Amino acid sequence: MDVEVTSQALAAMRLAARSAHPREACGMLLGEGGRIIEARTTANVHPAPETHFEIDPQALVDAHRAARRGGLQVIGYFHSHPTGDPVPSITDRAMAAGDGRVWAIIAGEQVRLWKDGGSDADAGFTALSYVVTER
Ligand SMILES: [Zn+2]
């Protein structure tokens, strides 16, 4: 099944990647069901942000709290590759939790979606196709 992504979320990810360059941008993918409605940029708090990312933990706590109160769910995460391709790096594979969340990776204007494990935790990342919706 295709994931749906709003054009606003895609635009927000591309803007975040451009703004953070040459560092990695990062943030959370918020939505409901199979729909990514919002890409919320957070600080990249990793000490080596040119080659790594770590989403601001307080932003994650806040998003999960809002989700429990009926807000948008945390469907996954996004980050950019300032140099290279929008495919999971060795570092990304090492960080993967196998929790079934969606990872979006941005390189230039390209945005690709990946699923982190899921039913088979050893599966690693699998490419997801998506359709763009207006809202
Ligand atoms: Zn990466």
TrEMBL record:
Domain of life assignment: Bacteria
Gene3D superfamilies linked: Cytidine Deaminase, domain 2
A Pfam family: Prok-JAB
SMART domains named in the record: JAB_MPN (SM00232)
Gene Ontology CC: proteasome complex
Domain MPN positions: 3-135
GO molecular function: metalloexopeptidase activity; zinc ion binding
GO BP annotations, alphabetical order: proteolysis
Keyword Hydrolase: yes
Coiled-coil parts of chain: none
Sorted UniProt keywords: Hydrolase, Metal-binding, Metalloprotease, Protease, Proteasome, Zinc
Matching PANTHER family: CYSO-CYSTEINE PEPTIDASE (PTHR34858:SF1)
Name listed for the protein in its UniProt record: Proteasome lid subunit RPN8/RPN11, contains Jab1/MPN metalloenzyme (JAMM) motif
